[in-house]
């Protein structure tokens, strides 16, 4: 090293090594900054870019740069205006499609919004080497189209396709089976199929699932919505599961969810946890299903109907599916008896790294203790809708798994409110990275919300002492040093104010927060306070991203009855205080009026969002008036804004008061105007 010159420059690094360094950088803004250093770095950055999302306006597609020729993963689903046909805006759609092919010749993975079948007919022949495609459509399917015709162009031209994702593509369940059966060579090459449909209240019937899996014997991953209710024709039961396992013996991921599980219907917190009907699934047949899937690594069975005494079948998982790493069960009862805290049932799956238990009526604290002893590798644990577990049982689980557990979700558990849930995390407070809790403030005196924060804090401190679940003094730190993602559920009308005093006051690494608000505000005359309490989140110094989901809030969008308030006042309640946060990115889902299928940004929301002086990205998952959107131009750092009607059914036709194609053009022109000075 003594002979090493002190004048060695970064450019002396061999190009091959430098290209490898560039390829390891994934953040888009960082890559863009690197490309501005010098011409050489510009060429290197472009030549090593592998993924790209186009966000320009469809009218400007002819200006696509041709320097990203090595891009393999291309996302065209977010081109503005969102949800409009990609190529119909051009007078020569075929020429525009050829231009896309010329600009991105190396694409093997494509995401695209298919408003009408012509888009796929034009794009599919351009990239015959596609290996993965994700189709998106939240608008309704054209009713006059023959079954399966929308997939013909894709299956005919993209013979190398191995992965198909239509989880966000609205079509009929009857569309896919005949299309797949018509192209057996294509079907045999499929290894990943995602038909976990979020846009339909109906799942695939048993004969449709069997037709699909019989045509795709080499599937390694299958995700699907179906019907487990035996009262319906085409329900999934024992024989369907056996046949499915026989059709696709190479499955490493099997994800089957009842269609009702994807709805936002809240269950009664006071029920016993059992549904009125049992699923036609027995533990004896489940054991045979597991035996036919020896390569299984991820299993999700969210049945939504009782599967009783499941522990004998689950005990077989460890021997018959030795590679199993992730397991999620919904409405399974008797999964672990926990007699004397000895492992049995699911607790014998010692290789599990992720476990989610949903609506298990007889899960107890001793079951949790047995699971913690039998599954020592768990890094992710979720428990939802389990009525018999308490903070003591969760505390014991986190104490035993304190060296591995970093991701926890506790939701809709009757005996676990916000305070007790946070206390149960005490053993892993300095290690946990992701956390979800419900903002249920049973231990907060309701009168404290009216009298002031000091009374509220005193009440919480007393409750914290009286409900202390841990006796180990080694976990005394109140700092959540590694927590970077926090997810919260809160009922409409409740407040976030007690959050910091409940134990989440010191989170120096928290970067992202997700808040989901649900409930019917038509039952309440007006909010009880001036704001939800977003301003209290300013105490998290690293917070830069927020997902505020009010789509589960139902109210009056137009005219409320006398004595009640419309959604504009509730939107003010939800967003008041957001200007105090130093957010860089915000995803916002407005509340909805189900009677008119309207999710719109109102004047109070637009005015409050316009005061967020640090926002760079703003995505509104709904509609808005053009003059409300113009308020957002007051944000000096704003660079990326989009309205996304990504819910079903998306509005078919823009009305005179909502953002239309020309409205989007005018807003984007103003946003990108040279007269706007962007600080960075």
Automatic annotation (TrEMBL):
<feature type="compositionally biased region" description="Polar residues">
    <location>
        <begin position="447"/>
        <end position="457"/>
    </location>
</feature>
<protein>
    <recommendedName>
        <fullName>COI1 F-box domain-containing protein</fullName>
    </recommendedName>
</protein>
<dbReference type="InterPro" id="IPR006553">
    <property type="entry name" value="Leu-rich_rpt_Cys-con_subtyp"/>
</dbReference>
<dbReference type="InterPro" id="IPR041567">
    <property type="entry name" value="COI1_F-box"/>
</dbReference>
<dbReference type="Pfam" id="PF18511">
    <property type="entry name" value="F-box_5"/>
</dbReference>
<feature type="region of interest" description="Disordered">
    <location>
        <begin position="447"/>
        <end position="470"/>
    </location>
</feature>
<dbReference type="InterPro" id="IPR032675">
    <property type="entry name" value="LRR_dom_sf"/>
</dbReference>
<feature type="domain" description="COI1 F-box">
    <location>
        <begin position="13"/>
        <end position="50"/>
    </location>
</feature>
């Amino acid at each position: 090293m003594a002979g090493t010159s002190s004048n060695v420059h970064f450019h002396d690094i061999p190009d091959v090594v430098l290209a490898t360094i560039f390829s390891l950088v994934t953040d888009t803004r960082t890559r863009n900054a690197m490309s501005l250093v010098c011409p050489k770095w510009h060429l290197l950055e472009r030549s090593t870019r592998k993924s790209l999302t186009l966000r320009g306006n469809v009218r400007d597609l002819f200006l696509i740069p041709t320097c990203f020729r090595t891009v393999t993963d291309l996302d065209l689903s977010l081109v503005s205006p969102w949800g409009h046909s990609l190529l119909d805006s051009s007078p020569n759609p075929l020429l525009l499609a050829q231009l896309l092919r010329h600009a991105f010749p190396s694409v093997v993975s494509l995401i695209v919004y298919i408003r009408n079948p012509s888009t796929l007919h034009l794009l599919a022949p351009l990239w015959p080497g596609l290996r993965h495609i994700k189709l998106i459509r939240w608008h309704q399917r054209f009713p006059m189209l023959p079954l399966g015709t929308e997939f013909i162009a894709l299956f005919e031209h993209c013979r190398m396709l191995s992965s198909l994702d239509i989880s966000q593509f609205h079509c009929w369940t009857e569309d896919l089976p005949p299309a797949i059966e018509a192209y057996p060579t294509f079907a045999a090459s499929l290894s990943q199929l995602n038909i976990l449909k979020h846009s339909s209240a109906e799942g695939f019937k048993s004969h449709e699932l069997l037709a699909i899996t019989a045509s795709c014997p080499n599937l390694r991953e299958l995700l699907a919505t179906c019907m487990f209710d035996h009262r319906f024709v085409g329900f999934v039961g024992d024989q369907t599961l056996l046949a499915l396992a026989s059709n696709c013996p190479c499955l490493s991921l099997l994800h089957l969810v009842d269609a009702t599980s994807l709805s936002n219907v809240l269950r009664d917190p006071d029920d016993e946890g059992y549904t009125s009907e049992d699923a036609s699934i027995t533990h004896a047949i489940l054991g045979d299903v597991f035996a036919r899937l020896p390569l299984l690594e991820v299993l999700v069975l969210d049945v939504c109907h009782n599967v009783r005494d499941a522990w004998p079948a689950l005990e077989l998982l460890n021997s018959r599916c030795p590679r199993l790493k992730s397991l999620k069960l919904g409405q399974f009862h008797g999964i672990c008896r926990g007699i004397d805290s000895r492992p049995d049932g699911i607790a014998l799956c010692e290789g599990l790294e992720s476990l989610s238990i949903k609506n298990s009526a007889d899960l107890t604290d001793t079951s949790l203790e047995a699971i913690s002893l039998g599954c020592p590798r768990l890094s992710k644990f979720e428990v939802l809708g389990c009525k018999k577990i308490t903070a003591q049982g969760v505390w014991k689980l986190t104490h035993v798994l304190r060296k591995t557990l970093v991701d926890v979700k506790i939701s809709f558990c009757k005996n676990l409110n916000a305070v007790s849930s946070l206390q149960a995390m005490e053993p892993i407070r300095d290690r946990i990275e992701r956390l979800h809790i419900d903002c249920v403030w049973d231990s907060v005196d309701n009168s404290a919300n009216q009298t002031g924060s000091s009374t509220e804090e005193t009440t919480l401190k007393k409750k914290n002492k009286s409900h202390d679940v841990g006796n180990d003094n080694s976990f005394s730190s109140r700092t959540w040093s590694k927590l970077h993602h926090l997810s919260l559920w809160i009922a409409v009308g409740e407040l976030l104010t007690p959050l910091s005093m409940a134990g989440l006051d010191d989170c120096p690494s928290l970067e992202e927060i997700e808040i989901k608000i649900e409930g019917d505000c038509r039952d309440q005359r007006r909010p009880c306070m001036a704001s939800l309490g977003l301003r209290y989140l300013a105490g998290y110094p690293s917070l830069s991203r927020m997902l505020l989901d009010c789509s589960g809030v139902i109210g009056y969008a137009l005219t409320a009855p006398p004595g009640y308030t419309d959604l504009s006042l509730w939107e003010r309640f939800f967003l008041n205080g957001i200007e105090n946060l130093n957010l860089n990115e915000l995803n916002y889902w407005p509340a909805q009026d189900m009677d008119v299928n309207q999710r719109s940004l109102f004047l109070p929301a637009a005015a409050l969002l316009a005061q967020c002086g640090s926002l760079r990205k703003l995505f509104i998952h709904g509609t808005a008036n053009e003059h409300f959107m113009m308020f957002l131009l007051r944000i000096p750092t704003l660079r990326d804004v989009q309205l996304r009607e990504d819910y079903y059914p998306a509005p078919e036709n823009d009305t005179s008061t909502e953002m239309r194609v020309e409205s989007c053009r005018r807003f984007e022109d103003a946003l990108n105007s040279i007269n706007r000075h962007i600080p960075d």
